[in-house]
Amino acid sequence: MHAREDGAVIDRVVRHIYVHVPFCATVCPFCSFDVVERRAGQVDAYLDRLEAEAVVAAEQFDVVPTTLYLGGGTPSHLRIGELARIVDVITRVFGRPSGETTIEVHPLDAGEGKVAALGDLGFNRLSVGVQSFDDRVLASLGRAHTAAAALTAIERCLATGATVSLDLISAVGGQNLGSDLAAAVASGVHHMSVYTLTVEDGTPFARRGVQVPDDRAAGAIERTARVLGSAGFDRYEVSNYARPGRRSTHNQAYWRNRWVLGLGPSAGGHLPPLDADRSAGAVAVRTANAPMAAWSGGAPPEAEALGPREAAGDHVFCGLRLSDGVDLDEGSLRWGVDIGREFAAEIESLRCDGLVELDGTVLRATDAGYRVLDRVAAEFC
Ligand SMILES: C[S@@+](CC[C@H](N)C(=O)[O-])C[C@H]1O[C@@H](n2cnc3c(N)ncnc32)[C@H](O)[C@@H]1O
Ligand code: SF4
């Protein structure tokens, strides 16, 4: 940690690592992530490239991992030996993560032996992609598993003693959201991510003309917040709910705009500037890794250098997703910009519209602001 001449306090240590694992058993028709169905030889090539990328990152940045997150794609689709190699690479190159270590788990990968082996590899947070507890809805989403398989997966994950999260998709046509939420609560998980179905360009859902009416989406979000709130889940981020003490440290690192190293195809990162960018006035760099084909061929990430105002804007933009809001003083100190002054007009106009409130130095979205968060956040871009 050191203070720059302009007063900004920059801690250059990167404490969070995200690894994108781009393989899935089958590709769901609603999903637009950078994924492929596994083919012979591809995983070994991916693991080699991942290791090379990690070694380069370690030469450039001071990485001392607190959290590690294996997302996808479907990391659980890899064999235990392949997952062990990822953990080994991270540990050898950067050191063993000292805190939350998450892996996304597909219900069909949750055989008893496999789930236990994930625990042995050090994963202490397991995030299960459930989507719905209704077999008809799962079929309409093109999911390859049943609700019973998801429940078995959750039980096995809970039995390891890890923190267990599940993903649900809301606002699906024909879905009984009330029963999905009740089943999710009854499953005993500690954490839930509930995403509104989005129809992304280029997906089979878009080609079929699947629609999610705005009122259905808004109703689903309100209902989710109400039901999970009464069941004792804290809505700590727009789409994320946790039992006390079970918030995700890794995901909060994104929303608190901490440094994150992204490894793997299409992974995003937020990193301290290297010397050349720093001398040009950058205080942070946003990175986006190339998609699978180009990344596999060694393509470097796209990097966008951020000046103090842009970094501070990002800080507010991300922080407003949290129910805790964002401490403007902390952001100002970090980025060397007086955020209250720099964004005075934007904050005042949102305040007049009843979309944000200022509590001391903490800026928070109001209930009305939470409903139109993209509009609120856009003011700081
Ligand atoms: C990487 S996947 C989770 C792990 C695993 N691949 C699986 O599907 O079980 C992350 C989550 O993103 C959500 N998701 C993906 N595409 C979505 C879409 N178009 N609309 C809403 N949620 C989506 C799903 O809830 C999914 O579980
Ligand atoms: S939702 Fe999960 S399993 Fe389905 S294609 Fe996307 S990443 Fe793969």
Can you walk through the features of this model?
This protein is α/β, with parallel strands linked by helices and 381 residues long. It has two domains: 10-252, Alpha-Beta Barrel (TIM Barrel), CATH 3.20.20; 320-381, Orthogonal Bundle (Arc Repressor Mutant, subunit A), CATH 1.10.10. 41% of the residues lie in helices and 23% in strands. It is built from 17 helices and 19 strands. The protein has helices at 42-60, 80-94, 112-120, 135-140, 147-159, 177-186, 204-208, 214-230, 249-255, 275-279, 292-296, 308-319, 328-335, 339-342, 344-352, 367-371, 373-378; strands at 2-3, 9-10, 14-21, 23-24, 36-37, 63-72, 101-105, 125-131, 163-170, 191-196, 234-237, 240-242, 260-263, 268-271, 284-288, 302-306, 326-327, 356-359, 362-365. It has a nine-stranded mixed sheet, with helices on both faces. A three-stranded antiparallel sheet has the order 14-15-16. Strands 17-19-18 form a three-stranded antiparallel sheet. Strand 11 (234-237) and strand 12 (240-242) form a beta hairpin. The longest helix is centred in the first third of the chain and has 19 residues, at 42-60. It starts with a strand and ends with a helix. It binds S-adenosylmethionine and iron/sulfur cluster. Residues 24, 27-28, 31, 33, 35, 72-74, 106, 129 line the site of iron/sulfur cluster (SF4).
